[in-house]
Automatic annotation (TrEMBL):
InterPro entries: Ergot_Alk_Oxidoreductase (IPR051604), NAD(P)-bd_dom_sf (IPR036291), NmrA-like (IPR008030). Its EC number is 1.7.-.-. This is NAD(P)H azoreductase. The lineage of its organism: Bacteria, Bacillati, Actinomycetota, Actinomycetes, Micrococcales. The keyword Thylakoid does not apply. It comes from Isoptericola dokdonensis DS-3. Keywords: Oxidoreductase. Pfam families: NmrA. SUPFAM superfamilies: NAD(P)-binding Rossmann-fold domains (SSF51735).
Amino acid sequence: MRWSADGLVAVTGASGRLGSRLAFRLAAEGARQRLVVRDLARAPRLADGRPLPECEVVTAAGYDDAVGMRAAFEGVQSVFLVSARESADRVTEHVAAIDAAVAAGVERIVYVSFVGAAPDAVFTFARDHFHTEEHLRGTGLRWTVLRDNLYHQALASFVGPDGVIRGPAGTGRVASVSHDDVADVATAVLLDEDPRRHDGVVYSVTGPTALTLAEVATLLSDVTGREIRYEAETVRQAYASREHLGASAVELAGWISSYEAIAAGELAGVSGDVARLVGRPARSFEQWLDDYPAEWEHLLVPPSSDAGGTDA
């Protein structure tokens, strides 16, 4: 596929795991882009500290900063819109960002959604994405939706300090995906020489296989040399075991319903969209473990406390 670098692309969430990866890919392809961040100091830069080529950086206080978001989108052709942080106002924030793009004269939005987005999805945050998608469809803008599965990195974060993954996922499977694959798909969609073929299309962005959490635990045990296991919980047990975290009711419902969605089979579907759009297979969880040891090194076996040793 040949890339087209015509038109300015705005990348929201550019300091995050996904947005920063996309920013580097767009820069490598010579695309003109505007990075939208909350903090200028956290904007992606080259290894030597220089700004990315063909890139400008702007700040906005958040998606609900109507003035800041509209200014960030002025003169932009395409917006890459990542979802806001989980909160009770999430859909309202998404709507505000989309409306700011409309007001600024943006032509299209590529929105990062979630697999199985629906008004009755088991995963509560997938319901938020459904309502955002519905608003986007009604704007008259050209749009493409990338419905991602859970990220590989999220699976590693499920492990507690005691080496146990706990949750009401049963024996369900999850086709988790890497941030790199999502960024590659976004690059393909944003810079395609025939971009209109992506208009009105919903892509399912998943990994190449669907694993149970017991299988995830086994793979993590293999790379860490530590016993990591999955322990199924009931929904009531899941809420009780997370009470001490001090999270909001919205956050707790989202975290726990992600496991319930796995149990219900809503995250098990494996799509070939990464391979079709990028021209190579999606990266497996095992490959991600090899590529990103820094993301799971906190799970390594601690130093031995045998006689003569020290605890650290």
